[in-house]
Amino acid sequence: MVLDRLQAGFARWRAEPPAHARFGADFLAPPPPPKALAASEVPRVAWMLATRWRYTAALAAVPAGRGGAVMVLPGLFDADGSSVVLRDFLTRLGYRAEGWGLGRNLGVKSVGLEAERLIARVEALCAEAGPVTLVGVSLGGIMARLVAHRRPELVAKVITVSSPYAGGGRATNVWRAFEWATGERVDDPAVIARSQAIAAPLPVPCTAIWSRSDGFVNGFICHDPSAEAVEVSSGHLGVHIHPEVLLAIAGALAKDAVVQDR
């Protein structure tokens, strides 16, 4: 009885958009997720880690991909160590999975004012292995889109994971941490203009993996009509190692290979 009620309540919640999903066309209009969702992030990631074993068979059954270079761009404060699980998974599928090699993601402090250091890394990998698929987590996905706009010839595809690119910085519960880490202000006209340019449709294929229950960023601005949207059930912390996300990334890579074959 209790389980039936919980399932019915979850179904209603998914069918009825939450308050932070209701906003107009204004880029700066989306609000952040409710504080209750943010407060649930730590226990939810703990539960995810404790129950990952349930996906062991599904992850092991993913067929090998077609290969190619993949660069994983970490989220705010994270470095390449955070993507070891994801890169090992992609390597097992036959991809050349690389970190970004720029240390911790501190925004422009890491990639340069014009993302020149990141573009140089992508350019070097492209020279060795051909156009690169960029998999960006949170802030890393926003940077991946920036590279694809600036140098589309280097990029095979962009896959964003919980990246709030389709709205302003205050549509997150971590905008103060962003300002502290990067030295930029989310309400700076230059930052807003850059964000709006990043949100424009990409000149390369794009898959946006998002969650409506994300507690740190508004999941409803983590995708847009120009991208293939894949919804998962996950919080923000640890999203890049969530089994649903690993499966979604593998599926996006495989789907792109099928399209190219045609």
TrEMBL record:
User: What InterPro entries does UniProt report for this protein, alphabetically?
Assistant: AB_hydrolase_fold
Specify the domain of life of the species encoding this protein: Bacteria
SUPFAM superfamilies annotated for this entry? alpha/beta-Hydrolases
Q: What is the protein named?
A: Alpha/beta hydrolase
What is the protein's species of origin?
Sphingomonas taxi
